[in-house]
Predict the structure.
Amino acid sequence: MRIADMTMNECLALLSEGHVARLACANAGKPYVVPVHYVLAGRRIYSFSMPGMKISWMRDNPQVCIQHDSIKDACNWRSVVVHGLYRELPDNEHAHAEHMKAWELLQRRPNWWEPGSCTPKDQAGGTKPIFYFIEIVNITGRRALEES
């Protein structure tokens, strides 16, 4: 087996095929990694979350990392890492169109609200989901190649 770098187009293609990735953020020198449902559109990765530690940390430090992979077996895998910036999409006049775009893109996927919530419309206390995107700053990928 040989490891090879992926091109930008290969990285974007892998990201567009997927819908669950790991999101990493950090605060006060501590890392935090969680699974998120996402949709790639252009150079933005759209997702959502209920209020909590992840949102609080990303508000404090918008530099985040997303990792997505496709693993068939030990010799047949691809992995992409995105470094990017967290951009929140509040449902207000300024960001309403982008907020709705995120909602529309995500709802095309089955069970898009998992693992972030049981359902966005079914939250106790009226807590609303927070939509956001990760602006891609840098993207790299690697894949395994079987040697012949």
User: Anything to note?
Assistant: The chain has one domain: 2-145.
